[in-house]
Specification:
Helix content is about 40%, strand content about 0%. The protein is mainly alpha-helical.
C-alpha cells in the first residue's frame, strides 16, 4: 500500500471525521452552485452566493471547501472579432459556382484578405 507503519497507526488513532448536517448541506449547495455556473464561479462569487442563501462563510473557507470538493474554475476564452467589415460594402458575385477544378492554367485566381484589429497583438 506504500504507507509507512507509523502513518497507518496514526490513521487508526485519528478515527472517523463526523460531518454535521449543516456542513453537508453547505457542501452540496456549493457543488450545485458551481455546477450550475458551468465551472466558472470562483471563491469570491461563490462566497457571495452562499451568503445570500444564509450560509455564514468567508472567502478562505470557500477556498478550502472548493479544494476539498475538487472544484476547479475553468477560464473561458473571450471571443475575438477578427474581421472588420463595413455592411455597406458590396459582396462579390459567385463566379465559380462551386466549380473548383479549372480547365487550364491561369483561368481561376483566388485570394484572401486578412484584417488586423487595431490594438490587438497577433
Amino acid at each position: 500500500m506504500r504507507v509507512s507503519r507509523s502513518a497507518y497507526y496514526a490513521y487508526l488513532r485519528r478515527g472517523a471525521v463526523i460531518i454535521t448536517a449543516k456542513e453537508l448541506q453547505l457542501y452540496r449547495r456549493t457543488k450545485r452552485l458551481f455546477e450550475k455556473s458551468r465551472g466558472s464561479l470562483g471563491s469570491r462569487q461563490l462566497t457571495k452566493k452562499l451568503r445570500k442563501e444564509g450560509f455564514k462563510v468567508g472567502r478562505y473557507k470557500v477556498m478550502k471547501l472548493m479544494k476539498k470538493l475538487n472544484l476547479h474554475v475553468k477560464q473561458r476564452v473571450a471571443y475575438k472579432i477578427t474581421t472588420m467589415r463595413k455592411h455597406s460594402d458590396a459582396v462579390a458575385d459567385n463566379v465559380l459556382q462551386q466549380q473548383f477544378n479549372p480547365c487550364g492554367a491561369n483561368k481561376v485566381w483566388a485570394g484572401d484578405v486578412t484584417y488586423r484589429v487595431p490594438g490587438v497583438q497577433h
